[in-house]
Each structure stands twice: as C-alpha cells, then as structure tokens.
Write a structure and sequence with these properties.
Blueprint (H helix, E strand, L loop, with lengths): L2 E5 L15 H9 L3 E5 L11 E4 L2 H5 L5 E3 L7 H10 L10 H4 L2 E2 L3 H11 L7
Parallel strand pairs: 1-2
Antiparallel strand pairs: 1-3, 3-4, 4-5
Helix pairs in contact: 1-3
Protein name: (2Fe-2S) ferredoxin domain-containing protein
Length: 125
C-alpha cells in the first residue's frame, strides 16, 4: 500500500493560507486510498498545501520514489491523487499529466526531514 504524508503545519491546511478549500475533506479523501500521515511542517511553506506520495513496496521495488506535490489546492486534486494511487502510484503507474503541474523537487533538507518521519533511509535502492 502507498503511504501519503500530508503537511498541516503553519501554512498547509489553513483556511487563512488557502481559503475556500475543504482541507478536512481533502485529508479524508486521501485517507480512503492510502495510509495517510499528517505532519506538522515540511518546510516548503511557499508550496502550501503539500502532499508527499510514497510508493508501495511493489512500487519501490520497481524503482518508484516519493513524489512531492505542492500547491495541492484545487478541489479535484485529492481525487486525482487517489486515482493515481488506485492505478499503482509511484513506480507502478506513470504520474498523470494533471499531477505533473503540482510535482516539485524539494530542497535536500526537507526531503531528509520527511524521510526520517516516514521511516525511510534516504538511500536509493
């Protein structure tokens, strides 16, 4: 099963930062398709709301790596992420074109913080 980390710290998940989005509904939708963890802050606040999709064990074995998605603020974004995970997610299904609009590569320090929180080693392989 894929795992999702959802930032809900100082900027992400906030009606002040991203008004008009059902933040709780987004979190609920993602939790329907994958183990979903909420973290305080991933230190990429300029990209609020941030979601990190971890590959399933099979996806990791196939070469999948975590995919960072930022500015996940469209009401349909959670459904798009859920559909990709349903198709296999990282390593097993190509990222849908619509999600490439959200994808970004975080600074190394942010990646390491997220890996420590999710139990990953940070090493390829």
């Amino acid at each position: 099963m894929s795992r999702i980390t959802v930032c809900r710290g100082c900027c992400c998940g906030s009606s002040r930062t991203v008004p008009g989005l059902d933040h709780d509904g987004q979190l609920h939708r993602l939790s329907q398709v994958a183990e979903t963890r909420v973290t305080d802050c991933l230190k990429v606040c300029e990209r609020a709301n941030v979601v990190v999709v971890q590959p399933s064990p099979a996806g990791r074995a196939a070469g999948g790596r975590p995919v960072w998605l930022g500015l996940v603020n469209h009401p349909d974004a959670a459904d798009d992420i859920a559909a990709w995970i349903g198709a296999g997610g990282p390593g097993l299904a190509p990222i849908p074109e619509i999600l490439t609009l959200y994808a970004f590569t975080p600074a190394p320090a942010a990646r390491q913080r997220q890996l420590r929180r999710s139990g990953g080693s940070g090493r390829a392989g």
